[in-house]
Each structure stands twice: as structure tokens, then as C-alpha cells.
Amino acid sequence: MCDYYVFDGAAGVSQRGPARDRSVYDVLDDAATSARFVDYAQGPITRVRLVLPGMHCASCVWLLEQLHRFDPGIRSSRVDLMRKTIEVEFDNTRTGLKSIANILSSLGYEPLLTSEGTEHDQDAERREATRKIYLRLGVAGFAAGNVMMISIARYVAGESGMDLTLLRLFTVLSIALSIPVYFFSASPWLLSAMASLRRRVVNLDVPVALGITTLFVRSIFDIVSGGGEGFLDSFAGLVFFLLIGRLFQQKAFDAVSFDRTVRSFFPLSVRREHRGSESVVPIDVIRTGDLMIVRNGEVIPADSILMSATGYVDYSFVTGESVPIECTSGTMIYAGGKVVGTAVRLTATRPVSQSYLASLWERTASRTPRSSYVKLSDRFGLWFTAGTMAIAVTGAVIWLPNVALAVNVFTAVLIIACPCALTLAAPITLGTAMGVLGRYGMYIKNIGVLLELKNANTVVFDKTGTLTSAKHDVVYHGSPLTPEKQEAIEAVASHSAHPVSQSIAGNMTPSSTANVMVEDVGRGVRGRSNGHEIVIGSTAYISEILGDISIADDVGTAVAIDGVFMGRFVMRSHVREDVPDMVQDLRASSIHTRLVTGDTDRDAVVLQEVFARDEMQFRASPSEKVAAVEELRKNGAIVLMVGDGLNDVSAMAAADVSIAVTDETSTLAPASDLVMPAARLADLPGLLMYTHELTRVISAALWFTMAYNVVGISLALAGILTPVITAIMMPVSSLLVVGMSVAGARLFARRFA
Amino acid sequence: MSVMPLLVICSILVAGGFLLAFLFATKRGQYDDLGTPAVRMLFDDVHKKTENN
User: Fold this and answer.
1) What is the mean pLDDT of chain A?
2) Taking CB atoms and an 8 Å limit, are A62 and B43 in contact across chains?
3) pLDDT at position A116, please?
4) Residues in Cβ contact with A462 at an 8 Å cutoff, skipping those fewer than 6 apart
5) B15, A142: Cβ pair inside 8 Å?
6) Contact residues, chain B, for A1 at CB < 8 Å
7) Last residue of a domain, which of A559, A575, A591?
8) Residue A672 pLDDT greater than 60, yes or no
9) B13 touches chain A (CB under 8 A)
10) Residue A139: its pLDDT value, please?
């Protein structure tokens, strides 16, 4: 299947369009910079890990694992298709990170090089956590299987059917197998319970730990004292199932990496002009007063002053304003803006780490993270522990003269009341939901987010990129244009780097050619095409050329053909099609909606069909957005913030729960609890409904096990149940809970299909 | 029946061997990436020969 990839050496491999300017990789020669990507280094052998967002298929894996054939200095390369990472081991005396980056780039897999480097620590930590669960699961599964087999043999043989040596061996084996289960496999719950008690909080792990401990201690006590055969089979099985729940949680958590810092938005390097020569340097090297050159589409890394005559900066990342801003020489430019059109020269006024953007981010990061799942678990834990303790003590007191029976009742209650259903049902239901949602492009930070979403009663929207598409339309007002004239305008416009011109040229096929005569940068462009003389420019510019003052104050970009004013082009962003219905749906489920945007109110007319006037707030700075969210929260609202840009980040952190909306094109999304593609925005009401259904699934599972256990124990006390059936019933109840959780989460997720 | 204890101990030991193998494999990272190996096995090794020439 891979024969078409057979190369003769490394020749002729860059088929993926014009190769990107490779000089950006020069910075990788800098030891401190490249060290951010190094996983491991020992003598001449270095191993780096790079993220390649472009890899997607089996052929990619094959090609990328053949890297050693392009450069003999590369010893081996190994791909992780799920995480989209590649580990390259190379001989640092023969090759370097820069040439590896060049090879990858020439193959069409441009490595993601942000100034943060590859997140080694987090990834290693997560990998370690998953391994631990597997180890615990292995031990618990091994013990559970064997103890169950032994127990069933004993149950079937009954009191008299087994000789004494065998019985003694079985007893010793069961205890020996259970000890590692308690001390190793069950340790997450035991440790968490102890830690929470030390903090004087009772989380849900406390009753679980209590149940497990009672089950274990009482079984050992019964066996040693000869008072019974114990429940070690149920104990090992229970821990096994609890660990399966843990694994679900961890797997879902593994799927997405969410933690971003402001640095991951910044490029690794910037072009610096120093004493007349241009070189690519790491952004950390930039000092106040350095001259930087930033090209079309690149992000400005530091607050700076514009040195070029004019330039266009797209601040949509920072402020949410969707139309690029025209800046003239001497203007203060903030880090995080993206250069549009011609390259600009900038003088840095502050080092990268002290930029306005970085300070915005730090304010966000200093907030303490909160998790609804932990809160729920804490609240529920206290309630649950108090309840079971009360019942257990009451039961014991009733039987008090008879100490043996009292102890029996006390422990039995603790065992039955172990909230295994909840500890099993919640992570499995929510973990499954998380996986299913991921399939539809909605990535959730952790399972607690689903519970936060359920509680949300106010949705705050950002406008640009969220409700309106990030791309904007250019609308023409004026005398009608013939297709031929329209084409001529587009042809001339396509020669200008001005963002408005670019929008006018839009998706034009270059059918007509144009001779540009003059481009007065920042004012307008003049040219000839299809035999017409076309002038496009600001209204002031056109009026100057035509000598017609009447149009000078008009808004928009004017166009004149053969010396006659034709009309104006006005930029307008359009509300996404499904937004009105979506907002209606939210209102129908009595959720309040608000719009807070950094944008101007030029779209107010369009949005008035969707939002009431007093629900909209325009020209809000990032800190005003935070204030808006905080005020809502102060008035008792549980706020869901939906945004898309860095400018929303602080408001998103201030809200109870946040959703970042991304366009397919953008790979960067700000830190948030949930990331969803813009096309899925219509599903927001459905998503909120889904979270309600999920909690219903969990509580159904909870009530089910409660009933199951109560019935089971009553029958057992009445002597109707034989021990064999009990031994089967216990794991079956856990299996049923797992089944119910998975089926429930999947069933209700069908609405997204 | 006297053979039973022996059998039980043997079976536990065999199963224990598998458990140790599993623990070893997990520690060595066998279960870290469950997706890529499924794809990797699709490639044939034919090209290796040409490389050695």
C-alpha cells in the first residue's frame, strides 16, 4: 500500500505547495531554545519530541518512521498518531534539530514550534497516571478472579463437602490475594479519603474508603475468628470495578490536552534587524529598543511601536474586533496582534514577558481553579457519610444487648451503603459522554465540566467569531455593476494588500488581469482592467481624485470607474445562520442570554433580531467583560461564557464554566472548559439538555443499586438466598451499573448525530 | 482429593506469572499508545531489503 512513497533518496518530496520560509528554523540552532523540545540527552544521542498537527493517516506514520533515510544522523523516529507527536532520536554530532525540522517541513508536516516547547512534564505525568491505573487494575483483576473461583468452590461444596486442609489453603490464599488489593489497588480511594479528612472535608471517597475498609477488615476478622467465610470475593471484585471507572475517567482525560499558557500562542522566533543585518532570534532575546520585522500572518510577540509608514494589524485575538486596524508610523502596537498584508517593522517597547497580553493572562492564571465534580463529590460525601453513619449506629443501638449482632448490623450497613454506584456510575457515564462528544468535535476538559454546564442558567456570548463568523462579507451599496465591471474591480483590488481590498477581491478567480498604476498605501489603489480605469480607496481619497466633496464623509470604501463614482463597499460580519434559533431554544429552557463584545455596535441592527437591546453590551474591554460576568454571578446567576479569543480569556475564567468556539481554520483556542467547532454552536441547547439527562442516568443507576442491595440483603437475611447466588449477584450489580451508564450516555448522545 | 491443593497452587503460580508479565509490560510502556501500533502493523517490510543494498 505504501509503494507510492518509495523515494530515491530525499529528492522531490515537497509536493505540498510552496515551502514555508525555512529561516524560521534557524533559531533551533540556539541551544536554550532547542532544549525545550528535548526529551532526553545522553552523550551524542538526543531524543526530541515534536508535535506535528498535520499527521492524520497510516501513510503518515509510515513516512515519518522512515526519517532515518533522509538524514543518516537520525537513528530512529517513532510516531504517536493519537497525540500527533513524533519522537526522533538522533546523533547530535551528525545532525541537529534544525535540519530535522527542515526535513519534516519539506515532507509537509510542519512541526508546531511555540515558545513553550513540548509539554514534557504534563505528558509524562499523565502517562504515569494511566500506567498506575493499569497496574492496579491488573493486580485487582488477578486477585478478584482467583478469589471468586475459590469462593465459588467453597459455596458449591457447602459446609461439609470440603476437607480441612483444602479449606485452610483456600482461606490462606483468599487473604493473601486480597492484601495487595487493599493496600495497592484500592490505595487511590484510601489516600484520597485520608487527605480529605486531614483537610477537614468529607468527599465522596470517604464513604467509599469506609465501605472498602469495613468489607476487608470484617472479612478478615470473620475468617480468622471462624465466624464466617467473609466477603473477600465481593471486596476484590468491587475494587476491580471501581478501577475500571477510574480508567474510563483517565482515558477521557487523556484524549485532550487543555492547559495552555500565553506562550503557546506566541511564535518561537522573530526576525530581528541588528546593525543592518537581519537574523531570526528566539522571542525571549528581544529587548526594549530592538527592531523586529513581522510578516503577513505572523503574530507580534512584544508590545512595540510601528516604524513602517503604515501597517494592518488584526487584533481579533486580543480585542475581538474583527476588522484589521490600520496603523500609522509611531502607533503603539500590542503583542498578540497579527500582521495582515505587507510586512511591518516594529521597535519593541517591552520584553515579551511584560506585554499587555501576558499581564492579562497572568491575572487569569492566578485565579484558583474550581471543579464542580470535586464540589459535588464533597457535598455528596458529607451527606452520604452522615446518613450511613446515622443508620448504622441506629441499627447497632437497637441490637445493643447482643454485641455480636450489633457489630454485624453496623458493618453490614456500611458495606451496603458504600456509594459504589455513584463512584462507578458518575465517572463512567460522564467519561462515556466525554468520549462521544469528542467524536462530534466537542472536547471537554474534565468530566466535572458536564455538571457545571448542567447548572448554568445564564449564557454570555462574545460576538466576533462566536455568533458572527470570523470572516466578514463586503456589501456593495451604489449603482449596479455589470459583471464585467465587477470583475475589473476585483482584479484591481487583488493587487492591494489592504484588508478591505483583499475582501473585495475575495474568492475571485483571476480571469481578468489588471495593471496597477498607483497604490497610495493606506489610502487607495488605481489601476486598469478590462479597459476601465478603476479607483478604489477611502471616500476622502476618491473625492480628492474626482473633485467631488459630497462623498468625502461617507463611510466605507468607495469605488470609481472611469472617473465616475459608483458606490461604496461596506464591511459587515454576518450572524451565523443557526444563532437565532439557538438563542430561542436557550430561552425556551429558561436560560438567560447576554451578549458582551469588544466590537463596535455597527452590527447592532443585525443582532437586534436575536437579542433584546438591554442584553447587549458593546465596546467592552477584557476587564469590562470580567466585570459583566462577575456582576451576573453576584446576582446569583451561574454563568456560562462562550467566547473565541484571547480577549475573552479572563471573562471565561471568571465565569462558572466556559466554552471556546473555534473555526475549522484556527488551531488555537484559548484555555476553556470545553472547545467546540463553530458549526456545532447550534447544538448548545442540546448540549445543556444532554447534561441534565446524564445526571438523570447517574441517579437512576444510584437508585437501582440501592434497591438491588436492599432487596438482596433482605432476601439473604431471610435465608432465601444461597451464598452462590450472592457471590454472583454482587459483580452482576456492578456490571449492570456499568452497562446502564454506558448505554444511557450513548443513547442520549444520539441528538448530536 | 490430595492432589487438589497442589493443582490450586500450581494454577495460581501460572496465573501469577502472567500477572507479572502484564505488570512488566505496563511498566515498559506497552500500553501507553494503543492506537499507532494498530496502524503500524499494516506496513510490510519489503523496502528494508532495498535499503540494505
Assistant:
1) 76
2) yes
3) 60
4) A320, A595, A596, A597, A598, A625, A641, A642, A643, A644, A645, A647, A648, A651
5) yes
6) 42-43
7) A575
8) yes
9) no
10) 94
Please provide the size of chain B in residues: 53
Q: If you ran DSSP here, which 8-state letter would residue A404 be given?
A: H
**A516, HSE (Cβ side, Cα atoms, 13 Å):** 16
φ, ψ dihedrals at A139, nearest 5°:
-65, -45
Average pLDDT over residues A238-261: 71
Residue B18 structural domain: 3-52
Does residue A187 sit in the same domain as residue A81?
no
> Is residue A318 predicted with pLDDT exceeding 80?
no
Q: Are residues A536 and A649 in the same domain?
A: no
Interface touch A79/B22, C-beta < 8 Å: no
Cα separation of the two ends of chain B: 65
Q: Of the ranges A511-520, A615-624, A724-733, B9-18, which is most confident?
A: B9-18
Q: Which of A374-388, A390-404, A460-474 has the highest mean pLDDT?
A: A390-404
Cβ pair A82:B36 closer than 8 A: yes
Q: Is the pTM of this model over 0.80?
A: no
Whether A62 and chain B come into contact, CB under 8 Å, resolves to yes
Could you give the number of structural domains in chain B?
1
Whether pLDDT at A259 is above 60? no
Give chain A's domain count. Answer: 5
A107 located within any domain? yes
User: Which of A35-49, A551-565, A621-635 reaches the highest mean pLDDT?
Assistant: A621-635
- Dihedral in degrees, nearest 10, Cα atoms A152, A155, A159, A165: 10
Residues A127 and A212 in one domain: yes
Chain B contact present for A65, CB below 8 A: yes
Chain B residues touching A127 at Cβ < 8 A: 29, 32
| pLDDT greater than 60 at residue A509 | no
B45 touches chain A (CB under 8 A): no
Closest by CA position to A428, among listed A206, A698, A665: A698
Q: Return the number of other C-beta atoms located less than 10 Å from residue A704's C-beta.
A: 16
- CB proximity A81 to B under 8 Å: yes
- Do A6 and B12 lie within an 8 Å CB cutoff? no
pLDDT digits (tens, 9 = 90+) for A559-591: 888 878 888 777 766 677 788 888 888 888 888
Contact between A88 and A50 (Cβ < 8 Å): yes
**Cα–Cα separations (whole angstroms), residue A32 to A26, A291, A693:** 13, 22, 51
Interval A674-690 mean pLDDT: 85
CB count within 10 Å of CB A507 equals: 5
Domain containing A131: what range? 121-194+202-251
In chain A, % of residues over pLDDT 90 = 5
* pLDDT value at residue A717: 60
A7 touches chain B (CB under 8 A): no
Smallest CA–CA distance, residue B53 to chain A, in Å, is: 13
Q: Which residues contact A745 (CB under 8 A, 6 or more apart)?
A: A428, A429, A430, A432, A433, A436, A694, A697
The mean-pLDDT minimum among A276-285, A551-560, A580-589 falls in: A551-560
Helix axes A232-254, A164-180, angle to 10 degrees: 30
Is there a contact between A61 and B4 if contact means CB atoms under 8 Å apart? no
